[in-house]
Design a protein that fits this description.
Largest sheet: 7 strands, mixed
Strand content: 25-35%
Shape: globular
Strand order of the largest sheet: 2-1-3-4-12-11-10
Number of domains: 1
Oligomer: single chain
CATH topology: Rossmann fold
Helix content: 10-25%
CATH architecture: 3-Layer(aba) Sandwich
CATH superfamily: Class I glutamine amidotransferase (GATase) domain
Radius of gyration: 16 Å
């Protein structure tokens, strides 16, 4: 298995470290040529790797860099073609179909409405432990929020995976997983394992 991590800005190294713990091969996506399958891999052109992670950071900056580096359309096509994708914090914003407090739309492939910086400056960063649907032992998982967005509304077919104080912080739609918090900043690997299972078709 081979998972690409968008590495133009944000907290991408931490995602790579957790995937490495899980025995998953990772590589950094920094330029358009990184989206091609390795020479001699015999991989299909519509699936040059098995999964994609869009990390936290600054969604506006990431969106601009994706276009400047001519990676936006190729990544959009991969997601639309069914490549499993995992967006955390800014990555969730990039995936969202609509932003309630921002006129920008980026990939727009995840049918949810997201509010940016939903917790304001005073509660810009906080920690919680809650259940995450789909993790087999049903125990709580650690959730680190940093100037986090939240999911205000979900469309048809979207599965709500986690909530904090009655607000949606994780959701899945087909091949797309979007969460408000940063699982890569904790030692717990279960949410990344959940995504790896998605990549395996489980």
């Amino acid at each position: 298995m081979r998972v690409g991590v968008l590495a133009v800005q944000g907290a991408f190294i931490e995602h790579e470290q957790i995937l490495t713990k899980l025995g998953v091969e990772t590589f950094e996506i920094r330029q358009k040529s990184d989206l091609e399958a390795p020479a001699g891999s015999n991989r299909p052109s519509n699936r040059p790797f098995d999964g994609l992670i869009l990390p936290g950071g600054e969604s506006t900056v990431q969106g601009k860099l994706l276009r400047d580096l001519d990676m936006f359309e190729p990544l959009l096509r991969l997601i639309q073609d069914g490549l499993p994708v995992f967006g955390t914090c800014a990555g969730l914003i990039l995936l969202a179909e609509r932003l309630s407090n921002d006129g920008n739309v980026y990939f727009g492939t995840l049918p949810v409405t997201v509010r940016r910086n939903a917790y304001g400056r005073q509660l810009g960063s906080f920690f919680a432990e809650r259940a995450f649907r789909g993790i087999t032992d049903e125990a709580t998982v650690p959730m680190t929020f940093i100037r986090a967005p939240l999911i205000e509304k979900v469309g048809d077919g979207v599965e709500i995976l986690a909530e904090v104080k009655g607000e949606i912080v994780a959701a899945r739609y087909k091949n797309q997983l979007g969460i408000s918090f940063h699982p890569e900043l904790n030692e717990d690997t279960r949410i990344h394992q959940y995504f790896v299972d998605m990549c395996l078709g489980e």
